[in-house]
Amino acid sequence: MRRLCAKAYVGGVLVVLITFLLCSMVAAEEKPSVATEQIDNLQREGKEEIEEKRSTETELEEQEQQPIELEETEAEDEETEGTVILSRLPVEKITIGGFIDLDFDYFDRSDVADKNSDSTSDLGLGSVDLELRVFFNEWVKSKIVLAADDVGKEDGDEDIKLDEAIMTLECPYVPLYFVGGKTVLPFGVFEDRLIVGTITEELYEVDTVGATLGFTPDFYGLDISFTVYEGQEIIENLEDFGAHEFTPDRQEEDDVNSFIANVTLEPVEDTLTLSVFYDSEPGDGDRNQTIGGAFTLEAWKFSVDAEYFTALEREKGENGEENKDSAWVVGLAFRPLESVPLEFVTRYEDFDDDESGDQDEVLDYRYVAGFSYKFLKWATFFFEYNYWRYERESGSDAADELNSLHFRIGLAF
């Protein structure tokens, strides 16, 4: 049955791709791209210039010698070759961008497992991204992002990796789109506004290769999408976070049978955005199912963000229990002056691992406060304070709280 489902997913993706290819081909015949129109204009201009030169050459032949005609012919050949080379690049636009983040971090404890540990600090590049975008026409585009994270930081990964590589195809006749490749798949919003990402992002972000088919009718910003991918991303995030322990004999699947359903609605334009999302991944026995919702409200000089995730079903862990984790975040942003790019932010985050008793080093909740100030067109300064509250077993030497300060200068180009 699972193999049949996997084949159905693959077949569905192929049908979508073929449909979009045919749709784009027909559209290209009816409405040429801007790049094609530019090429045609250049070719017409070239032909007109050639005809003028030929007319001039005819007059010169009657008055002057042959070598002048040969020189004009050589110039004519060079101009024609330039037009042919240009026609080999049938794209509207290519852009290059990216950003560099310089971070300084301070923690009043170097190890949460030891409440008597000393403070620690770190200086490094939080992120270095280089982004290439290619716009083939108004319906087809692609994006490639190379990135290196935590460069120079302790336990940082300085290797350059392929962070994102996607193709986007839109149908010109019906409000459908297709996105395929490696990217953060449409499960969750994860609005943080400052430096350290939200706990919901750390636990529930699905960053892998996937294929998304979406429907965007002209109705209050409605966006309905369905995504398929391979892997067990969320339960692995929980295991890395310390909120789940795999059984020793756990079985993993290698079929494409994970999927996401997402619905986004903007009932009040530029004011209120609502989202609901559902994820289902194969597990060891039971499937791991997660559901969530989010909203963003813009009112006057304030922004309110809230997001909630909860497990509907989880595979049993090493403790023999099916722990249904949940997490939620609520944030408030305030921009006091329209003429000054300054934003104050505060946020509260909460996590419940659904396990009886307390476990060392498992985050219970967190308070965040800080601000961002864009002091140049391309540069922004960030400051963030975090108070972390952890669970602690009775009699343990682990810490139950942590304070941290974070500073960042971000340069975008």
Key words describing this protein structure:
about 425 residues, alpha+beta, Porin, 2 domains
SSE order and pairing:
Elements (H helix, E strand, L loop, with lengths): L1 H29 L3 H30 L2 H21 L6 E15 L12 E16 L4 E12 L5 E14 L5 E9 L14 H6 L2 E9 L7 E7 L3 H9 L16 E11 L3 E10 L6 E12 L2 E12 L12 E9 L7 E11 L10 E11 L5 E12 L10 E12 L1
Antiparallel strand pairs: 1-2, 1-16, 2-3, 3-4, 4-5, 5-6, 6-7, 7-8, 8-9, 9-10, 10-11, 11-12, 12-13, 13-14, 14-15, 15-16
Helix content: 10-25%
Judged by helices, strands and strand pairing, the structural class is alpha+beta
Q: What strand line-up does the widest sheet have?
A: 1-2-3-4-5-6-7-8-9-10-11-12-13-14-15-16
What kind of oligomer do you see?
Answer: single chain
What is the number of beta strands?
16
- Tally of individual helices: 5
In round numbers, the mean pLDDT is: 85
| Uncertain spans | 26-36, 60-87
* CATH domain fold name of the largest domain: Porin
CATH superfamily of the largest domain: Porin
Largest sheet: 16 strands, antiparallel, barrel
Principal-axes shape call:
globular
CATH class identity of the largest domain: Mainly Beta
Q: SSE order, as H and E? A: HHHEEEEEHEEHEEEEEEEEE
Overall number of structural domains: 2
State the CATH architecture of the largest domain. Answer: Beta Barrel
